Amino acid sequence: KQWYQRRVAITAGGNKGKDNRNLHLATEGIIKEGTNAAAGISKADIMKRKLALEAKKKKLKNINFFVSTDRLCVRNMPSTFSETDLKQLMSKYGHVVQVKIMRDIKQANSAGIGKSKGYGFVQFSKHEAALTALRATNNNPSIFTAQKRPIVDFSIENSGILNARSKKKSGFIVEEKSSKVKKSFNQRWKEKREKRKESGAFTKPPASSQSALSSKPEKTASNKKKSKCKTQVKESLGQSQSSGPKLDLKNDTSSSINTVLSSQPQKLAKRKKKEKSTDCDSALIPLL
User: Fold this and answer.
1) Are 62 and 125 in contact (CB under 8 A)?
2) Is the Cβ–Cβ distance between 41 and 116 less than 8 Å?
3) What is the reported pLDDT for 8?
4) Which residues on adjacent β-strands are paired with residue 96?
5) What would you report as the CA-atom Rg of the chain, rounded to the nearest whole angstrom?
6) Distances (CA, A) of 173 to 159, 161, 178
7) How far is CA 82 from CA 86, 96, 120, 138, in A?
8) DSSP H helices in 91-153
9) Half-sphere exposure of 249 (CA within 13 A, CB side)
């Protein structure tokens, strides 16, 4: 009783008299050793009840757990007890909504039904029916055997799991993690690219223009440098041609160029000294 009062005070908080987690039902069905109700119970059943009570206390320390008002947990069942047997037993006390026996799938029989773990759950449509069934079947020696009596109490439920199940059934799944996580740079870049494609920003030029662009060679830094040196050489040769015979750089032979250059050896010698630091010599040699 002291444990129950403490739990009610903690959960109620400032709202006195309110039991939002139905903790008043946690003590229903408890049988302690040495009481009149424990007369004739085997030591194995007393130990099972102690362990069940400890597990219940541990769960109820978490505020996410609460006591169900219409769902019972039935323990200490024989392995041959089926869902139909359990439903037939509990339907005497009210309308049964659901019956489930926990089974071990690894130890399944030829029909694919797993071996019973010895406990199950029964859900009623009303709280009154569940309470009546609990008080009638709990510790009843005439149901199973005198040495193995049923241990019945209200089921402990997890509010988080129940909320998730209800959302899945209604088809509304909330993904909080995906909403909080920011999109990466690659994702944002792909989305922008797709939008631009849809708007028509990425339109390919016609084939004729592409061929024309591809036919034009790109001017590199070395080509620009060579063309500049060639223009300088042409200018220098053009000045020399003003006093002497005219030269056609494209068609004249090397002999005609040598005759013009030999006429002014002093000017060429001075020009070579000035242009030692530049790369114009490399362009002058093939022309000579």
Assistant:
1) no
2) no
3) 47
4) 124
5) 49
6) 16, 13, 12
7) 6, 15, 10, 18
8) 127-137
9) 14
Angstrom CA distances, 178 to 80, 165, 173, 181, 186, stand at 47, 19, 12, 5, 17
Q: Residue 285: how many CA atoms within 13 Å on its side-chain side?
A: 4
What amino acid is encoded at 284 in this protein?
Answer: L
CB neighbourhood size of 231 (10 A)? 11
The single-letter DSSP state of residue 99 is E
Amino acid at 59: K
Stated pTM of the model: 0.53
Say if residues 103 and 114 touch (Cβ distance below 8 Å). Answer: yes
108-145 per-position pLDDT tens digit: 888 888 999 999 999 999 999 999 999 999 999 999 88
Q: Which of 59-68, 117-126, 135-144, 233-242 has the lowest mean pLDDT?
A: 233-242
The CB density around residue 99, as the number of other CB atoms within 10 Å, is: 20
Return d(Cα 69, Cα 128) in angstroms, integer: 9
* Polymer length in residues for the chain: 288
Distance, CA of 288 to CA of 283 (rounded, Å): 9
CA nearest neighbour of 76 among 147, 155, 131: 147
End-to-end CA distance of the chain: 117
| CB atoms inside a 10 Å sphere around CB 38 | 14
The answer to whether the CB of 129 falls within 8 A of the CB of 93 is: yes
